Amino acid sequence: MADETRKLSLGIKDRLTLPAFIPEKSNFVDQILAEDITKKVRINQEEMTEIGLHFTEADKDGRQMLTWNRDKEADKEIELTQAEINFLKKQVDRMDKAEQLSPDLMVIAKAVKGL
Fold first, then answer.
1. How does the average pLDDT of the chain come out, rounded?
2. Of 41, 49, 46, which Cα lies nearest the Cα of 14?
3. How far, in Å, CA of 68 to CA of 66, rounded?
């Protein structure tokens, strides 16, 4: 029987934020799942050009912001396997217990928990 999949619709900010759930170190299986998820949400060069994704000029403190034309942005629907969903839910729980969830991460955390 084929692995059941679910779809998740993500905007550019969500796609840039989702990798924050990927742990720096983990076991072999989790690293494979993380790699597959990262490939699905990656923004390619064509998309970058279409939406004008770029860093702003550095401010007086040397900080830059990533910005894009939100009028040209379109959500991307990604298909996740049950294994990928379980992995993401585990990562949300891990970050929740460590009190590492920011308001930006909560948007994706809620979406993942709803899968």
1. 94
2. 41
3. 7
Q: For residue 31, give both structure tokens.
A: 């690293």
Angle between helices 28-41 and 82-97 (to 10 degrees): 100
Distances from the Cα of 52 to the Cα of 26, 45, 49, 78, 84, angstroms: 34, 10, 5, 22, 30
* Per-residue pLDDT tens over the stretch 35-74: 999 999 999 999 999 999 999 999 999 999 999 999 999 9
Report the Cα 84 to chain-centroid distance in Å: 12
**DSSP 3-state assignment of 98?**
coil
Model confidence at 95, pLDDT cuts 50, 70, 90, reads: very high
